[in-house]
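S.,

As promised, the heme C run. Input:
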Amino acid sequence: MNDIQKAQYNEKYKRAKRNGEKFFPDTLYKDLLIAIALFLLLVGLAAFIGVAAEPRADPSDTTYIPRPEWYFLFLFEMLKFFPGSIEWVGTTIIPGAAVIALLLLPFYDKNPNRHWKRRKFALTFMSVVVAAMVFLTIRAVITTPPQKDVGAVATTLPAKIAAGLDFYSVQCNECHGAEGEGGVIKGVKGLEGFKMKPINSQDEMYTRSDDTLYNIIEYGQPSLGMPPFGKAFGGELSRSDIGNLVTYLRYTWDNRVELPKEAAQTNAIPTLGPTDIPSYDVNIAPIVKRYCVSCHRPGKENNNYVMGSYADVMNSGDHKPNVVPGDLNSNLIRMIHREKIDAGGEMPPTKALSPDLVAIFERWVKAGAPEKPKK
Ligand code: HEC
Ligand code: HEC
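Predicted complex:
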């Protein structure tokens, strides 16, 4: 800055100061107005729109890929250029240097010109930085694998109860029965013939708090024969899964709380009109999932009969086919009628299916055991 420029600048500064506004109250007032407006906007967004919930944090979940918010993605991406032992360059040196360079800006950039044509170097430099940030952000978005789909997170009470029922059917049914009724266990290694007490009783529900139930499921009761289900203990359930399961148990078995109507509807097994033809997809799959899959799924022996899909229901098992379209003497039908045959005994072992469910199976087999509903 030469002397003439300096004088001009000082003159301008004095003028501005003479006519200028005071920090208090003028500037403060303006800032305050904007701050309050922003605050109200945030309160409004939080109250009326909110943020979609993610599953509960779970340190034992190894499928979760941690990543920063989008506005820090470029920093995250930069780390990929500084792997391993030189990571500190990317995490500390470069961002640190950039922040210090900005802080010191007034001391080294004393160019008095404000017109962009006279600030070519600063402009070019900043453009390169911004372009690099945009590039890194885009690269990060493209190259980071999507979060493993954890499915829709249940946020409403009915959705939680429905999710809990699904976990119960798969994980708990084999030992505790579809309705928690207990009975003599069959087909579970180590517990063959064990007489399970009912866990759906008021005794159980009145004396166990949600936290207790949660812990029983997460840690199991290994000394009694109940395995742990928490992922951290080798089980298959995440923390939010267990939370949903507890909600399901509470609303289904505790008569002090009422199952919401909507939940009762989602959980209900579709009923059939007198002339409807049942199909696997609509009518059989929900029954199988609720009453059979727990023992008949991959990893369980039980005569190698897996019931996870139409094809497997029709054509797996040591005594396959267990379902012969049109034939009411099919193994499956005889076994749900609790006959003892070559393929095995009564199914499900602990408690008979209700007559209307047995009737759905029969009508389905009689109609040729179709997979898809007929239009
Ligand atoms: C491999 C068999 C098995 C499976 C699967 C199983 N449990 Fe258990 N569970 C047991 C046994 C055995 C007991 C002890 C019963 C007893 O004390 O008579 C038990 C006890 C319980 C109790 C009662 C605890 C108490 O202190 O009264 C609850 C509640 C329970 N289980 C819930 C569940 C839930 C929910 C699941 C599914 C996530 C599940 N269990 C899966 C075997 C199992
Ligand atoms: C508690 C565990 C358990 C549940 C629940 C269960 N099963 Fe089974 N299932 C078994 C066992 C164990 C066998 C082996 C035969 C035996 O020991 O009776 C078996 C065998 C079968 C077989 C013979 C398979 C073959 O090819 O030999 C059929 C069919 C069958 N089950 C149907 C069902 C149906 C349908 C349901 C649901 C309504 C069901 N099971 C629920 C334990 C279970």
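The mean pLDDT is 89. Residues 182 and 198 are 5 Å apart (CA to CA).

- D.
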